[in-house]
Design goal:
The protein has 401 residues and is an alpha/beta fold. It has 2 domains: 150 residues, Aspartate Aminotransferase, domain 1, CATH 3.90.1150; 229 residues, Type I PLP-dependent aspartate aminotransferase-like (Major domain) (Aspartate Aminotransferase, domain 2, 3-Layer(aba) Sandwich), CATH 3.40.640.10. It contains 13 helices and 17 strands. The strands form 4 sheets. A 7-stranded mixed sheet has the order 4-12-11-10-7-5-6, sandwiched between helices. Strands 1-2-3-15 form a 4-stranded mixed sheet. A 4-stranded antiparallel sheet has the order 13-14-17-16, with helices on one face. The chain is globular, with a radius of gyration of 21 Å. 48% of the residues are buried.
Length: 401
């Protein structure tokens, strides 16, 4: 069934209407390029929202999936899963963490992190220590507790009453931070780079102040690296740029290059709070997802991989900024590595559509910011091809604004 109109019509009849989908169906991908059901090809600078960071149909990933599928896909966490143990070690060896819990998504990871900090706080400080502080403009997931932590109230509407104990402050506002974090605060959760909120990096100074305030009041610091983690910024984890170490970190999207997985990473003193029966996930960390996760980690921690990401992303950022200056855009390019945003005001959706028509997939967050999430394996030639399409789009849509 490759006819796009047929797919769309059947989808509207049978799939819940929870996404504002573009009128296309992608059916094949190789590297940075994808094809739709009509045979049109595109450069994919969305990558499933920072998921297929090693590109589509990466040969090593394909082979790993085939090999694992021929052996065993799933048992249960009632038994030890060798790939899970191996992936946990790869993650702890390459981060601050001592222990890992595996689940299936970023929202699940954040939900689990919230449970972990609340149990830790109650165990060590008493029943009144349960509050969670997050930032306005943040995005932490669609499940109820993760949604409560999300600092974009448009996502809350229709789902009230939400779980209690959550508050939201302005990023970089130290006065609000000091007022919000007190002896009843269990944790502060922050995306080092806000993704869905418009690609806004949080400054090292604000994060350092947050860490110090958490330590003062016995609260934990959670970094949500679901989108910005796993090589996206040019380092394996975004916190490595910041000289601030969290107590808990959540990751997901890129960890298995498209196979669903999420993880909570934590220091031993925090992780040991969870005991059998406290938290679980039927599919979390099964044989398939962790086999692929191991391969992703091996590739990303390989010699020269992240250095090449830094080189290519710096080139892309500089060229994007040149375009922004040429077309007199008011904002500057925001972000790190291959997680970049460019404000274009109300023209964002029109530019996204124009680029799609010309063979480049990007997306727009907040209706005003173009977001660029190419695979980390993108070539310089493909970057130049994307830039050429963007320049056409800017010339067409911004020249006479």
């Amino acid at each position: 069934m490759n006819n796009t109109e047929q797919i769309i019509n059947l989808g509207k009849e049978n799939v819940m209407n929870t996404y504002g989908r573009l009128p296309m169906a992608l059916i094949k991908g190789v590297g940075t390029r994808v094809w739709d059901s009509e045979g049109r090809s595109y450069l994919d600078f969305v990558t499933g929202l920072a998921v297929t960071s090693l590109g589509h149909s990466h040969p090593a990933i394909v082979e790993t999936i085939k090999e694992q599928a021929s052996e065993i896909l799933h048992t249960s966490n009632l038994y030890w899963i060798p790939n899970q143990v191996r992936l946990a070690k790869l993650l702890t060896d390459n981060s601050f963490a001592d222990k890992v819990f595996f689940c299936n998504s970023g929202a699940e990871a954040n939900e689990g992190a919230i449970k972990l900090v609340r149990k830790y706080a109650k165990k060590n400080y008493g029943e009144d220590k349960y509050k969670i502080v997050s930032l306005k403009n943040s995005f932490h997931g669609r499940t109820l507790a993760a949604l409560s932590a999300t600092g974009q109230f448009k996502y809350h509407q229709g789902f009230e009453p939400l779980p209690i104990g959550f508050s939201h402050i302005e990023a970089e506002n130290l006065i609000e931070l000091q007022q919000a974090v007190d002896q009843n605060t269990a944790a502060v959760i922050i995306e080092p780079i806000q993704g869905e909120g418009g690609v806004h990096p949080i400054t090292k100074e604000f994060l350092l102040s947050t860490k110090q305030l958490c330590e003062k009041h016995g609260a934990l610091l959670i970094f949500d690296e679901v989108q910005c983690g796993l090589g996206r910024t040019g380092k394996l984890f975004a916190y490595e740029w910041l000289d601030v170490t969290p107590d808990i970190m959540t990751v997901a999207k890129a960890l298995a290059n498209g196979v669903p997985i999420g993880a909570i990473l934590a220091s031993a003193k925090v992780a040991d709070t969870f005991q059998p029966g406290d938290h679980a996930s039927t599919f979390g960390g099964n044989h398939l997802s962790t086999a692929v996760g191991c391969k992703v980690m091996e590739i990303m921690t390989g010699e020269g991989f992240l250095a090449e990401v830094e080189t290519k992303s710096s080139y892309f950022r500089d060229k994007l900024q040149e375009l922004a200056d040429k077309y007199k855009l008011e904002g500057t390019v925001r972000g790190l590595g291959f997680m970049l945003g460019l404000p274009v005001q109300e023209k964002g959706p029109e530019i996204v559509q124009y680029c799609s028509d010309k063979g480049l997939l990007i997306n727009c967050v907040g209706g005003t910011t173009l977001r660029f999430l190419p695979p980390l394996t993108v070539s310089m030639k493909e970057i130049d091809e994307a830039l050429a399409i963007l320049e056409q789009a800017f010339k067409e849509k911004l020249q006479n604004k």
